[in-house]
Amino acid sequence: MRVVLGGAAMFTVLISALILFVLFRGAIDFFRSIGWDFGILVDDSAAPGWFPRRERFDLLTIVLGSIVMGLVAMIVAVPLGLGTAVYLSEYAPPRVRRIVKPAVEVLAGIPSVIVGYFALKFIAPNIVDPIFSPDQPRNMLVAGMAIGVLVVPIMASICEDALRAVPMSLREASYGVGARKSTTTIRVVLPAAVSGIVAAFIIATSRAIGETMVAAMAGGRDGSGPRVLSPLDPGLTMTAAMTNAAGGTDQVKAGAPFQVLFFVGLLLFLLTMSLNMIADRVVRKYRQKY
Amino acid sequence: MIQVQAVQPEKTTESSVVFSVRDLNVYYGEFRAVRDASFDINENEITAFIGPSGCGKTTVLRCLNRMNDFIETARVEGKIEYHGVDLYDPQVNSNEVRRRIGMVFQKPNPFPKSIFDNVAYGAKLSGRFSKSEIDEVVENALRQAALWDEVKDRLKASALGLSGGQQQRLCIARCIAVKPDVILMDEPCSALDPIATARIEDLMQEIKKDFSIIIVTHNMQQAARVSDRTAFFTTEINPESDRRTGVLVEVDSTRKIFSMPSDERTELYVTGRFG
């Protein structure tokens, strides 16, 4: 039994290592194809952009795409997620909590392709178009908002755990000197849970940046630049650029235009991994012993 | 079953009564935790609540500053008057009640903030002091709590770095800083060693001229040492449900409770033959 279980654990670790190996190998192939000319990754022409089939790889275009959509997502996810967590942990009567909490968890289980259609069929026509009238129905704002919805459950869930870990005795100490419930939440409970909340933020950001389907479906899938930061423009994230290279609009079978997907993947992997490591450090460093 | 009405006989002048409790019943859901408790609490005295586990002494204590409001299922019946005002009147602001009737808890519970911020917390919220006055309020509270000399050079340090006894005195300072009228203490020394306990007991004697104090304690010697009056609670088992309900047996001067109590159950308890 022990051997079988140990083997399962070993195999899981092995898969992670294998993924990393494939990414590294692909990235090195890519660098060979472009003759180790890193200058190619920063397009300084008048109209920079991500055109892999023309072997123009302006990394900044897709990195900015990821940042803009990630920012929009977090602007949606932080108030919704933290608000839900505070409500569930501090305010909701047990009856309501028993209904709301599973409902939030259901949201976490919805396949992202469905959220992608939700973005196209609801967020774009009913929220973004009437208010902002963007030029294109598919843009970074629409995709970012949907990604935000997608990461609300993880934000809410980790924040709620952090809030519930704050001992009741601290709340009572605050009530005991005449503090209102809202004051107690803001001045005592939230500060005591700050490490968990920051960790939730970082992990949700990492998820948002790694989100692929919604970014590809609703974000416009347009790497043609210019490198504008307006969320109302269509854009291309690192993840969407990878799906393009793998089987979407830019499908190519070999050479740099294909291999670049491994390089972007490696970048993405390192980015999300470092975010997760930072979150881990934050939790450890600021963990309150109460 | 004898109906226990432990209203104190030699009632002093009306103005010196802080709490007047009549027919207090407390329920948690269907469960009755305390039955028909009636008693008065006098100003500038230390009243001890003693009794075996589950006798409802902490429950009664937490009714006196409406701390039970935060327990979803808790329900309070009967009348609790605080200086003649019905504490459970819908017009009464329960936050103001808790400001005037402070509480010190079983386990020291300083906020994970600096020593200064812990003491200043309630005083700042009350909005009655300017920024410059807060420093003074903090210093005075720490002096009153006999903690000033130990912490004056590290007010910005985390309160969590203090010893257990110091933390509990800090909690008392935090309570004093909002200038309450009454301090409720729920087994304040149960987590402390004998030396720290002695310091808290001395402190109680020091501050009782400014506050009325009610202390719940498991420790009969402590009640005998510190209190002027003692209320003895015990449990009754309901033969139908087999559940325990707390009842107040009697309230009297501490000397009387420990030497010649009126009720046999009190005598059995204080002489260590029961509980």
Topology overview:
The complex is a heterodimer of chains A (290) and B (275).
Chain A: H1 2-33, E1 50-51, E2 56-57, H2 59-91, H3 94-109, H4 112-132, H5 140-164, H6 168-176, H7 181-192, H8 194-210, H9 213-218, H10 238-247, H11 256-286
Antiparallel strand pairs in A: 1-2
Helix pairs in contact in A: 1-11, 2-5, 2-8, 3-5, 4-5, 5-8, 6-7, 8-11, 10-11
Chain B: E1 17-28, E2 31-42, E3 46-50, H1 57-63, E4 74-82, E5 85-86, H2 94-100, E6 101-104, H3 115-126, H4 131-144, H5 148-151, H6 164-177, E7 182-186, H7 194-207, E8 212-216, H8 220-226, E9 229-237, E10 244-253, H9 254-259, H10 264-270
Parallel strand pairs in B: 2-10, 3-8, 3-9, 6-7, 7-8
Antiparallel strand pairs in B: 1-2, 1-4, 4-5, 9-10
Helix pairs in contact in B: 3-4, 3-6, 4-6, 6-7
Write up this protein.
The complex is a heterodimer of chains A (290) and B (275). Chain A is mainly alpha-helical. The model of chain A has no long low-confidence stretch (mean pLDDT 91). The two termini of chain A are 41 Å apart. In chain A, β1 (50-51) and β2 form a beta hairpin. Helix content of chain A is 73%, strand content 1%. Chain A is built from eleven helices and two strands; from the N terminus they run αββαααααααααα. In chain A, α4 (112-132) crosses α5. In chain B, a hairpin with a 2-residue loop joins β4 (74-82) and β5. The longest helix of chain B is centred in the middle third of the chain and has 14 residues, at 131-144. Chain B has 275 residues and is α/β, with parallel strands linked by helices. Chain B starts with 16 loop residues before the first strand and ends in a 5-residue tail after the last helix. A ten-stranded mixed β-sheet of chain B has the order 5-4-1-2-10-9-3-8-7-6, sandwiched between helices. Classes of the chains: A mainly alpha (290), B alpha/beta (275). The A-B interface holds A 93-94, 167, 169-180, 183, 187-188, 191-192, 288-290 and B 65, 67, 70, 72, 95-100, 102-105, 107, 109-113, 121-122, 125-126, 160, 171, 174-175, 177-178.
